[in-house]
Amino acid sequence: MAMLNLHILLPVLAQWLTFLTSCQAARYNNGFFYHDLMNGNGNGEIYFNGVRLHVESPNSLVSAARGSNVTLPCYYRYEPELSVPRTTRVKWSWIPANGGSSAIAPSSSARETEVMVAMGNRHRSYGSFRGRVRLRRAAPGDMSLVISELHLHDTGRYRCEVIDGLEDESVTVDLELRGVVFPYFSQNGRYHFNFLEAQQACERQDATLATFEQLFTAWEEGLDWCNAGWLADGTVQYPITIPREGCGGTDLSAGLRSYGQRHRLFHRFDAFCFAASLKGTVYFLHTNKLNFTEAVQACIKDGGQIAKVGQLYAAWRLMGLDRCDAGWLADRSVRYPIVKARTNCGPSEPGIRNFGFLPEDHKYNVYCYR
Ligand SMILES: *[C@@H]1O[C@H](CO)[C@@H](O)[C@H](O)[C@H]1NC(C)=O
Ligand SMILES: *[C@@H]1O[C@H](CO)[C@@H](O)[C@H](O)[C@H]1NC(C)=O
Predict the structure, then answer these.
(1) How does pLDDT run across 36-52, given as a tens digit for each residue?
(2) Which positions carry the signal peptide feature in this UniProt record (predicted)?
(3) Which residue has the higher pLDDT, 166 or 236?
(4) Looking at the chain, which terminus has fewer C-beta neighbours within 10 angstroms, N or C?
(5) CB 76 within 8 A of CB 54
(6) How far apart are the C-alpha atoms of 241 and 218, rounded to whole Å?
(7) For residue 264, what is the domain's CATH number?
């Protein structure tokens, strides 16, 4: 019975829809010819005069914590508004921030690669994003990209491109991780890393080489460091907030001092690393004082691992870890984190206090990560 009714009803409905559509068209009937809306296929080219596809994002910069789910906003709409839904294609692509992963070549060749393409309800994701991205679709025209379990290497410039026939509009959103930049040098002394070694040194401390933008932000927040370090783009720079002799001189205003691109194999400097916010916690382990080997074991016995330098920086900067007790870290350095400067706890500014790399038989407490 119900089936029968539907059969009778559908043609009637279709007629009504056609009628409604032409009424709608008539509303805008100011010289435009809404050919495609009226012939009913609903998805011809929108070449007709006056209808424009708009793609926009309320945020051109999104900061998120590592491991979190992040949304990169992107919306499209037609102007004037259309009454019949159209099938659009959406493509999200990106240029990684750490584009300079090649040990030799500069990163200027960084290209946009695909993250996801979607058409209607079908979509496909690529590379390291496979199975980890989706479109939010919280409202009509919402093509925001949701990335789950944000990785350290997901940062960069994302492009949201909406394609409707010949119309093609896009907008970019920069994704950065909440984190902290710290200078890092080799156990063998200052200016020991070539580019690849600098990359590896940061990775070993649960960090990445900082991008120019990250170092710039750190400088804006007051980082002053008079030793040059590699950045992810293969340049060598250092941040100065108080111009002085020996650090670029007093003729230069405060800012990032750059040596430009250096030879990635033969030139040697320190590194600027970037540590993103942590999933776990860094904590001070109460113990009798331990040599380095014992310290490593103590953290394991406690269900964790000895903390890496990047983890201590992230805990200090992003979680307010403040402790006036020196402890071993994974790279055999001894450090402690101070948020509120006070007497007998180092200089008058907050920071990570560093005793340097010490012989393994020295006895200290330890910072663990779990
Ligand atoms: C992130 O999204 C995934 C599914 O995409 C979900 O299982 C997980 O609970 C989400 N995590 C957070 C922190 O919201
Ligand atoms: C650290 O202490 C252990 C004993 O707890 C000892 O066997 C080891 O030799 C010590 N290591 C160093 C480098 O002193």
Answers:
(1) 333 334 445 555 557 88
(2) 1-25
(3) 236
(4) N
(5) yes
(6) 11
(7) 3.10.100.10
For the whole prediction, is pTM greater than 0.90?
Answer: no
The answer to whether the beta carbons of residues 238 and 197 sit under 8 Å apart is no
**Closest by CA position to 75, among listed 91, 93, 54, 61:** 54
Q: How far is the CA of 145 from the centre of ligand 2 (A)?
A: 52
**First vs last Cα of the chain: how many Å apart?**
65
Between CA 289 and CA 286 the distance in angstroms is 9
How many other C-beta atoms are found inside a 10 Å radius of the C-beta of residue 290?
20
Q: Are residues 296 and 202 in the same domain?
A: no
Mutate to test the pocket of ligand 1, among 69, 123, 125, 149 (most ligand atoms within 8 A of CB): 69
Q: Distance (Å, rounded) from C-alpha 87 to C-alpha 44?
A: 10
Q: Which long-range contacts (CB under 8 A, 24 or more apart) does 36-39 make?
A: 37/82, 37/83, 37/84
What residue numbers bound the domain in which 360 lies?
Answer: 282-369
In a domain? residue 39: no
Any atom of ligand 2 within 6 Å of the Cβ of 361: yes
Tell me the CATH number at 171. 2.60.40.10
Domain-located, residue 325: yes
Amino acid identity of residue 153, one-letter, is H
Shared-domain flag, residues 108 and 201: no
Q: Quote the CA–CA distance of 90 and 119 in Å, as a whole number.
A: 6
Q: What is the dihedral of CA 24, 27, 29, 32, to 10 degrees?
A: -60
Does the CB atom of residue 148 touch ligand 1 within 6 A?
A: yes
The reply to whether ligand 2 has any atom less than 6 angstroms from the CB of 360 is yes
Provide the pLDDT for residue 286. Answer: 81
Using a 6 Å cutoff on CB, does residue 29 contact ligand 1?
no
